[in-house]
Amino acid sequence: MAMVSPRGTLLRQVVGRGMALAVIGVALGLLVSIPLGKTAASLLSGVKPNDPTTLAGAAIAMLVIAAIACLGPALRATRVDAASALRAE
Question: N or C: which end of the chain has fewer CB within 10 A?
Answer without folding.
Answer: C
